[in-house]
Amino acid sequence: MSLLKLEEIAMWFGGVAALKNFNLEVAPGEIVGLIGPNGAGKTTVFNVITGVYKPTRGRVFFMDREITGLRPDLIAKAGIARTFQNIRLFKGLSVLENVLIAHHLHLKANYLEAILKLPGYRKEERRMREQSLALLERVGLANLRDEPASSLPYGLQRRLEIARALATNPKLLLLDEPAAGMNPKEADDLTEFIAQIREEFALSILLIEHHMNVVLNISERIYVLDYGMMIASGRPEEIQNNQRVIEAYLGVNEDVED
Amino acid sequence: MVTQKKRNRILTVIAILFLVAFIGFAENNLDLYIVRILNVCAIYAILGMSMNLINGFTGLFSLGHAGFMAVGAYTTALLTIPPAVKKQIFYLAPLIEPLDRINLPFPLALLVGGILAALVGALIAAPTLRLKGDYLAIATLGFAEIIRVVFTNTQTITNGALGLKGIPALTNLWWSFGTAAFTLLVLLSLINSSYGRALKAIREDEIAAESMGINLAKHKTLSFVIGAFFAGIGGGLLGNLLGTIDPKMFSFTFTFNILLIIVLGGMGSLTGSIISAFIVTIANEYLRFLDERINLGFFVIEGKVGMRSVVFSALLMFVVLFYRHGLMGSKEFSWDRFLAGTGQLYQRTLGRLIRRPRKGGYAG
């Protein structure tokens, strides 16, 4: 059984095909890498999964339920959370508020109960706070909880974005270049962090990443995209030696061709 | 910390008691002119807070506020004007059944006005939700104008361009300040709740908010509906304070005045809107001399009606250019900051006179 399944996805923007006949599967508990040169369509895959784009053709299944073209908030509710390539925190709000907001989708009390602060809502609010603080404690941001998110250094903003995604209580986490702009040491820490949260939160993870060390170390399977087409998939060591992948990344030496 | 909390609570209680005592005194002893200005201050505070919910907290640049106020003002007025008076003012065409007979008590009429304005808010929210920024501003502005034009032409309900006269003067300081306090309480409770955080998330980053599971349409509508509700109530209070209303009153200029208040007070600060509503309203009265002939002795400035608006527009430009956060930014009033602030003020002014400045001067 697969947790996430993309079936023959095509995504056209006017005359440009960002994705062509793309298939992907993520099994429960798996960490899957998605790599490819710039403009290959990796983020488009994320946007199709999370409902930001409705694919031109093809279907998306999550836990055996079709979610193609569903609204992003409903997909988040179904259990898919994401981070963004260019960090999208709620900048003016505090670190704690950022995480609290991610709990909002599970809130049962309606707005009148919230305004009147009825016992049911109070209880939920207390639980949200406890869980948020515990999560911040876990990711090492508890001492910064009242700081505005924008004041955090870059690496911690990335971490907060992951924490915020975790707070929605997802089954599948989509990470869009989490190690972008990190030095090798920071990237190693992140790799370890991702492996840990997978265990602790019983997650599946789909990961876009350019840092080859991170992808090769952590992924159980890797998909390689180029010009919207999947050119290879398999275990990290298979991908490393795949001729087409090397060509896509390094270019083809014309003299040797034929 | 506990003592600080207790101190703040005591200060709040004292402030409320002081306010209640002041209203009791003002209602009976102060000049009618001043009472009227205070009423307008409180009503503008309500309008400012309600517009701030939509524009400042949810980040929706809506310019439809005058429309919501018009709905509230007309509804409340029509429900409170005595039937005999209605017969007199609707001389071009009679008021339709059963409105000509209905006469509700003031609070109930206000509530109906608020609810109708909220319905209009929901109606406007539905088609304009997809729009952002300038487009939303234009669409909501258009809606407010539509309401105004409809009110000008529905002779048998609104008395058209003649407007409504003889609205009973039911608004007093208790009603206006009481409603302002109620508005503050409800909106504070809302913005500090999980729903309020969701609204702020939409303001900060719509795409991120949606991918965190926040239903944009539902929450934006919530903001519009609650904002319109209080705008309607504010409009109702205003109509029953002024005694006459007509469609011209609710033109874009009115929305602009409220916009000035929330920008000056700080987008995203309810208490900022209250403070700024008082400043703007009172300044509006004190600056009346600008519209009149000013004799400087050596030079005479001929009075031009509308000079005040020029001054206010210039003020708004100044705030937007150099002081974008307004008086309060997105912070709310707190005793801690207030006491710290007055402490600093004391040190900078009185303290300076009492103690000789230290060598090297003051750093702060």
What does this structure look like?
The complex is a heterodimer of chains A (258) and B (364). With 258 residues, chain A is of the alpha/beta class. Chain A contains 10 helices and 10 strands. A 6-stranded mixed sheet of chain A has the order 6-7-8-3-9-10, sandwiched between helices. Chain A has a 4-stranded antiparallel sheet with strand order 2-1-4-5, covered by helices on one side. In chain A, a hairpin with a 2-residue loop joins strand 4 (57-62) and strand 5 (65-66). The mean pLDDT of chain A is 92. With 364 residues, chain B is mostly helical. Helix content of chain B is 70%, strand content 1%. Chain B has 16 helices and 2 strands. Chain B has helices spanning 2-29, 32-57, 65-80, 83-89, 106-128, 133-153, 155-158, 173-191, 194-204, 206-211, 216-242, 252-265, 270-286, 307-322, 335-348, 350-354, and strands at 294-295, 300-301. In chain B, strands 1-2 form a two-stranded antiparallel sheet. In chain B, helix 12 (252-265) packs across helix 13 (270-286). The longest helix of chain B has 28 residues, at 2-29. Mean pLDDT of chain B is 89; it is low at 360-364. Chain A binds chain B through residues 50, 52, 71-73, 76-77, 81-82, 84, 88-93, 97, 100-105, 107, 109, 111, 114-117, 121, 124-125, 128, 164-165, 168, and chain B through 186, 189-190, 193-195, 197-198, 200-201, 204-205, 207-216, 222, 330.
